[in-house]
């Protein structure tokens, strides 16, 4: 099978650091049981969600090419999604939140291509193709919601994380994998749950990423729309969970009007949610997002933005008022009267303007770090960036001049000016010196023997955000997850059951079948007495063929399964209700 993903131009636009997460969807790996799980969930969902989901859901299923009968093929999805300006890629389970959101910013839907086990048919803590494909994809056919998703990704991927956030991501990823895997020892699950609980109970001050992940959870994943008294479902987590989509509509789940306070409401991914938020319409989602973005360092900058980046210990960017952008790991800031007066990065750093690296100022040149004063010159109201050529000449800020610049906050820069670089507005954004000494009071920050000193120009920091300004400045092909999804084990018993599922599917599709429906039922009831889904499928076909004798035998068998496995009794009943409701309607 062709496993390339070059089926949508949007995917080709993705930067390399996002492409590293993409894996081929090997459609042949889906087993007949996987297909039966998809069909059961989708038939039940469409029947139920047609009544309680936002009107975009059923329309979206048709528009995005998602078939009820079979697990969607990503390549077919991409051809159809292209028409509404989106694409889809397959990934392995959870990926880091920044990357997940950045995919959205490129109008690319991330789909975990694995599918839940039959044992977890109602809900799985691990992302799977039911959740992503049948949950997220249909709603993006609504243009207003699709723009919210794109905008959310654009803003969310700039949110500054903390070291705690990444530890939480790794812990939740591992727990979801262990819970979804077959026969994981209970002790392992309990240890993973304990670790997640400890992290959740010691959140401390929520980072921007933690807060925006909360907003994402309470909207994109678990959002309701309409009124508190009469809400409809649009969140993918609810649309893909046949258990929780019904549970959320009861009085057991508290409904709250959606507002920015949801940013501080954390969630537990492994349990049903005790409360949900209701937005009056999709436009309101964008209003809350903008309200939150206005509080992010992305828009506020300043000392607090720099401090957030230093605390994150990760690659980030600050942008000065001239538009020059400094990307690297921020390690120090000198402040004076609540304002930053000097910033310092450690290690590879790049300088950019309007998200494009400045020629000659990449990570090879600034391999050891970068430091620069910020602010105005002491005793001069006119900032360097606002000076006219005459002003600059008056203050000796001119090529070939030996100059000492005294900044507010006791930062001095003394050296011979080599040259300056200007932005498109004509403002100086960078001044280079030779034989330069930079001091904060008596502390030397840069000395002549270190080479050329490049000084960024800007009276204030207007933005601080996660990641580099120019994605091409840094090698970010580095993602190595600490855990990998665990595939289902094969056994002779399992293979025999899969063959029976395949045989029944062939009968339904009018293809060649090795054995009859009656023989398939005899085999599954005798050799796999705990399996229930195949018997439900056989009952559907027997009823359709008006084979009352076989139908009665299957129903009697399913009653025994209900008695021996009460935990699946409601699933059997739901499946049968769907069959007999349709035949008696």
UniProtKB/TrEMBL annotation:
InterPro entries: ArAA_hydroxylase, ArAA_hydroxylase_sf, Aro-AA_hydroxylase_C_sf, Aromatic-AA_hydroxylase_C
GO annotation (BP), single: aromatic amino acid metabolic process
Location of the Biopterin-dependent aromatic amino acid hydroxylase family profile domain: 1-342
Binding of Fe cation, residues: 131, 136, 221
Pfam families membership: Biopterin_H
PROSITE patterns, sorted: BH4_AAA_HYDROXYL_2
Cofactor(s) named in the record: Fe(2+)
Lineage top rank: taxon: Bacteria
Key words of the record: Iron, Metal-binding, Monooxygenase, Oxidoreductase
Gene3D superfamilies: 1.20.58.690, Aromatic amino acid hydroxylase
Gene Ontology MF: a single term: iron ion binding
NCBIfam families named in the record: PRK14056.1
Family classification: Belongs to the biopterin-dependent aromatic amino acid hydroxylase family.
Full protein name: Phenylalanine 4-monooxygenase
Organism classification: Bacteria, Pseudomonadati, Bacteroidota, Flavobacteriia, Flavobacteriales
